[in-house]
Design brief:
With 296 residues, the protein is α+β, with helices and mostly antiparallel strands. The protein contains 12 helices and 11 strands. It has 2 domains: 2-96 and 261-295, Pantoate--beta-alanine Ligase, Chain: A,domain 2 (2-Layer Sandwich); 100-257, no CATH class. The strands form 4 sheets. Strands 1-2-9-10-11 form a 5-stranded antiparallel beta sheet. Strands 3-6 form a two-stranded parallel ribbon. A two-stranded antiparallel ribbon has the order 4-5. Helix 4 packs across helix 10 (213-220) and helix 10 crosses helix 11. The mean pLDDT is 84.
């Protein structure tokens, strides 16, 4: 009996030690993972600072004074991959004004009706119900009852940001809601990556020399073929584009310029199982980065 009790006590003691060691290892692994995470965040921050310094000190960037020169620069350095100390880094550069800033549908707290009309016509051409645009407006601080609360968007997503559309991920949430609410998937027909840009700064002019075919089609209400033709040129002035009177009238609804010296920078950092995607725009004239978006 005594031996049995002693054996039982010994087994319990071993079990307690095993559990304690297991908990200790778990906490140690969690602490290690936390430390590794903090180290990766720091490394990502250092890499971002280095990229910004490279851009600020780039003579090639400082010498850009036209859309043609910007095109040459982007053509030669659109994707820059490198690896060091087990960290893979990729930098993608493109025009930051090639798309339409979705948040410029609204000025102050008032929708720009002509721009709203242009976007509604565009989505309608792709079999999307025009109420989709109203859903977008409801996430831009529009509090009109007939727009904001004619659906259960904020009942379904009570924590959804409502002042402006922050990012592509934010738009995907709205798209998901639309698809589920109307039980149709026509949004897949639209290439939103080539159509929309996301910034709270509405002092934004579309660069007509880099505007995508999707943007031309939306702002002019023209055919796909006409949009493709317009997106293939570089212009010194709006007069050089060769627009008709009707097209000029449509263009006047939007803020545009033949040359906008802003670069869209996408920075991808990968180390083991950790990754970071950082996106920002870089103002060439003022040597300044802004509109930073982090996904860790």
């Amino acid at each position: 009996m005594r031996r049995g009790i002693a054996l039982l006590i010994t087994l319990l003691f071993i079990m307690l030690i095993t559990i304690s060691i297991g908990i200790g290892f778990k906490q140690l692994n969690q602490a290690s993972a936390y430390v590794e995470g903090e180290k990766f965040l720091y490394q990502s921050s250092v890499i971002l600072d280095d990229v910004l310094n490279i851009l600020k000190n780039s003579k090639e960037l400082q010498d850009i004074n036209s859309s043609a020169e910007l095109n040459v620069f982007l053509s030669e350095s659109s994707i820059i991959p490198f690896e060091a100390n087990g960290i893979k880094v990729s930098i993608e550069l493109s025009s930051a004004r090639s798309r339409f800033n979705i948040n410029s549908l609204v000025s102050g707290n008032i929708p720009n009706q002509k721009r709203v009309e242009s976007l509604k016509q565009y989505v309608s051409n792709y079999m999307v119900i025009t109420r989709y645009v109203d859903i977008l407006l409801s996430s831009m601080g529009i509090n009109q009852e007939d727009i904001s609360y004619n659906s259960d968007l904020f009942d379904k997503k009570p924590n959804l940001f409502r002042e402006y559309i922050v990012s592509e991920k934010h738009l995907l949430e709205l798209n998901e809601y639309y698809t589920n609410y109307y039980h149709e998937d026509s949004l897949k027909n639209i290439d939103f990556a080539k159509l929309f840009y996301y910034s709270s700064d509405k002092d934004y002019e579309i660069d007509l020399s880099f505007a995508t075919a999707e943007v031309w089609e939306m702002i002019l209400g023209c055919s796909k073929q006409r949009a493709i033709e317009l997106s293939s040129g570089f212009y010194d002035s709006i007069a050089d584009i060769g627009l008709s009177k009707e097209e000029m009238s449509m263009l006047d609804r939007f803020d545009t310029n033949p040359f906008e010296p802003y670069i869209d920078v996408r920075l991808s950092i990968i180390q083991d199982k950790q990754s970071a995607n950082i996106r920002f725009e870089y103002d060439i004239e003022n040597n300044k980065g802004s509109n930073f978006v982090y996904e860790i």
